[in-house]
C-alpha cells in the first residue's frame, strides 16, 4: 500500500509543477516587462521627414529605419502646440485644463519656478508602482519647472542630465545669460559638447548600466533639437545661427560655413537623427531591443511665424505651425516600435494623441492608474498593434486665443474667441484649405456641443 501512495504523491507533485509551468507564461513576471524608450524632439515639422513628405531634402536614416521596423503614425496629435505645455500633457496623460500648466514658461523666473503642479503624477511615478519598479532616467530638455520639488529627480526620475529651460545654446548650454545644465540637481559645465550628443551619451550610459542590473528601465529622452537659435542664449560676439557639428555638414555634402539657414537646419536634424540612432544601437548591443517599446514624437509642429532664418521647418501639407491650433501646430510626426508586437512597416492612420503615452506606459508596466485622477489618454497599444480603431471620440485643444476640436474626421478651429468657428473635413482636406462652416452649419453645431461636453468636465 505504501508504494502506490508514494507514487500518487510524486505524481501529484509532478502535475502541480507542470500546471505552474503552463500557467506562468500567461502572467509575465515583472522581469519580462518591456523597457520603455520615449524620445521627443523640439519643433520638428510634419513635413521635415521624407517618410511624411518624400520631397524633403533632410537625411534621417535612423528615423526612417524606426518607421520601417515599426509603425508610422499619420494622425498623431500633441495635446498642446507649445513646448512647456506639450511636455506637461505627455508626462501627466492630462490636458492643460486639468493639470493647470496652460502657458509656455518664460525667462529665468518661469523656467526655474514651480511650473507644473507638484501634485501631478508623472510617467516615472506610475512606473515606480510596478511589481519590480522601473529604473528611470531623463536626459535633455525639462521645461516644466525647476524649483525645489519640481526637478526631475524629485518627480520620479532616478537620474537626470539636461537643462531646465525651454532652449539652450547647443554648445555652451546657456539660457538668457545663465548656465543651464544639470546632473541631478547640481549644475555642471560641459562647454563644447553638442547638446544632442550630450543627451544621447547620457541615455546610452544609463541603458548600458541598467540593462544587466534591473528588471526594466524607462528612458525619457527629450532632445532640445531642432529648436531655433536665440541670440539671448549666446555668448558675447557669438553668431546667432543654427548649430550642428562639422561632421554633420560634411556628411550631408555641406560646409560648416554654410550660410543658408534652411540648409543649416537640415544639418541640425541630421545630427539629431544620428544621436537617436546611437541610442537605438545601444539598446541593441545590450540585447534589450527585442524587449523595448520605443516611441518617438515631436513636441509640436515647426514654427511658421515668418521670422527670417528661424521659421524654416516644414509642416506641409499641413496648415500653419507651432503655437496655433491648425494641423501644422498640433499634428506631429510619430513612430512606435515594439518587435513582435507592432507590425514592421505599418502605417497607423487612426487619430491618437500625446496623453495616450502615459496610459501605454502603465499598461506595459502592468500598473493600474489612480482611480481618483481624470486621464485624457486612452490605451493606444491595441491601435498600434493593428487590432482596433482609435478609442477617442474627440480631441479638445486650447492655447491662448486659439481653439479647436476634432470629432471623427471633422474639425472646428478659430484663432480668437470672438471669431466664428471654421469647419474642415480632414479626411479630404488635411491642409485645412476649404472652410465648410456655411455649408454644414449642423456639423459646426455638433462639434460645438461636443466642445461644451469637454468643458463641463473641467
Structure characteristics:
about 450 residues; 2 domains; 4-stranded antiparallel β-sheet; alpha/beta
Write structural notes for this entry.
- With 458 residues, the chain is an alpha/beta fold.
- It has 13 helices and 18 strands.
- It has helices spanning 2-23, 61-69, 83-92, 96-99, 107-111, 123-127, 195-210, 246-251, 261-285, 327-330, 356-365, 381-384, 441-455; strands at 35-41, 71-73, 76-77, 135-141, 159-163, 174-175, 178-179, 182-183, 186-187, 217-222, 292-298, 334-337, 346-348, 352-353, 394-399, 402-407, 410-414, 422-425.
- A ten-stranded mixed sheet has the order 9-8-5-4-10-1-11-12-2-13, with helices on both faces.
- β17 (410-414) and β18 (422-425) form a beta hairpin.
- α7 (195-210) runs parallel beside α9.
- The N and C termini lie far apart (74 Å).
- The model is unreliable at 1-31 (pLDDT under 50).
User: Strand content of the residues, in percent?
Assistant: 15-25%
Q: Looking at CATH, which topology of the largest domain would you report?
A: Alkaline Phosphatase, subunit A
How many distinct folded domains? 2
Shape: globular
What's the gyration radius in Å?
23 Å
The secondary structure category is alpha/beta
Concise structural overview:
With 458 residues, this protein is of the alpha/beta class. The chain has 2 domains: 34-394, Alkaline Phosphatase, subunit A; 401-455, Arylsulfatase, C-terminal domain (2-Layer Sandwich), CATH 3.30.1120.
Amino acid at each position: 500500500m505504501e508504494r502506490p501512495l508514494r507514487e500518487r504523491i510524486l505524481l501529484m507533485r509532478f502535475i502541480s509543477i507542470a500546471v505552474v509551468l503552463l500557467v506562468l507564461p500567461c502572467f509575465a513576471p515583472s522581469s519580462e516587462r518591456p523597457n520603455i524608450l520615449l524620445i521627443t524632439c523640439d519643433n520638428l515639422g510634419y513635413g521635415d521627414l521624407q517618410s511624411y513628405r518624400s520631397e524633403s531634402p533632410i537625411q534621417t536614416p535612423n528615423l526612417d529605419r524606426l518607421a520601417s521596423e515599426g509603425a508610422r503614425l499619420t494622425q498623431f496629435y500633441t495635446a498642446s502646440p507649445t513646448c512647456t505645455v506639450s511636455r506637461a500633457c505627455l508626462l501627466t496623460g492630462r490636458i492643460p485644463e486639468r493639470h493647470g500648466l496652460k502657458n509656455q514658461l518664460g525667462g529665468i523666473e518661469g523656467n526655474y519656478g514651480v511650473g507644473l503642479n507638484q501634485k501631478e503624477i508623472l510617467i516615472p511615478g506610475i512606473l515606480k508602482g510596478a511589481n519590480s519598479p522601473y529604473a528611470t532616467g531623463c536626459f535633455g530638455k525639462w521645461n516644466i519647472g525647476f524649483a525645489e520639488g519640481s526637478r526631475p529627480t524629485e518627480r520620479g526620475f532616478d537620474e537626470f542630465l539636461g537643462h531646465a529651460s525651454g532652449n539652450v545654446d547647443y554648445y555652451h548650454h546657456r539660457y538668457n545669460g545663465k548656465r543651464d545644465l544639470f546632473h541631478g540637481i547640481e549644475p555642471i559645465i560641459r562647454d563644447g559638447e553638442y547638446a544632442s550628443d550630450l543627451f544621447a551619451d547620457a541615455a546610452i550610459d544609463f541603458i548600458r548600466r541598467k540593462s544587466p542590473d534591473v528588471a526594466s528601465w524607462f528612458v525619457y529622452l527629450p532632445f532640445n533639437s531642432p529648436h531655433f537659435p536665440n541670440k539671448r542664449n549666446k555668448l558675447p560676439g557669438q553668431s546667432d545661427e543654427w548649430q550642428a557639428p562639422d561632421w554633420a555638414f560634411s556628411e550631408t555634402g555641406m560646409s560648416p560655413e554654410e550660410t543658408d539657414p534652411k540648409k543649416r537646419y537640415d544639418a541640425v536634424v541630421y545630427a539629431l537623427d544620428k544621436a537617436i540612432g546611437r541610442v537605438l544601437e545601444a539598446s541593441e548591443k545590450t540585447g534589450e531591443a527585442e524587449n523595448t517599446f520605443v516611441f518617438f514624437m515631436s513636441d509640436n509642429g515647426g514654427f511658421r511665424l515668418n521670422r527670417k532664418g528661424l521659421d524654416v521647418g516644414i509642416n506641409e501639407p499641413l496648415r500653419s505651425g507651432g503655437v496655433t491650433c491648425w494641423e501644422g501646430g498640433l499634428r506631429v510626426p510619430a513612430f512606435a516600435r515594439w518587435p513582435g508586437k507592432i507590425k514592421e512597416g505599418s502605417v497607423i492612420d487612426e487619430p491618437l494623441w500625446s496623453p495616450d503615452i502615459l496610459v501605454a506606459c502603465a499598461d506595459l508596466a502592468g500598473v493600474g492608474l489612480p482611480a481618483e485622477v481624470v486621464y485624457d489618454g486612452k490605451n493606444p497599444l491595441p491601435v498600434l498593434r493593428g487590432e482596433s480603431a482609435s478609442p477617442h471620440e474627440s480631441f479638445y485643444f486650447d492655447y491662448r486665443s486659439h481653439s479647436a476640436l476634432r470629432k471623427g474626421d471633422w474639425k472646428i478651429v478659430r484663432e480668437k474667441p470672438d471669431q466664428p468657428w471654421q469647419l474642415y473635413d480632414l479626411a479630404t482636406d488635411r491642409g485645412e484649405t476649404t472652410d465648410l462652416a456655411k455649408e454644414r452649419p449642423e456639423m459646426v453645431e455638433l462639434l460645438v456641443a461636443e466642445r461644451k461636453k469637454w468643458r463641463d468636465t473641467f
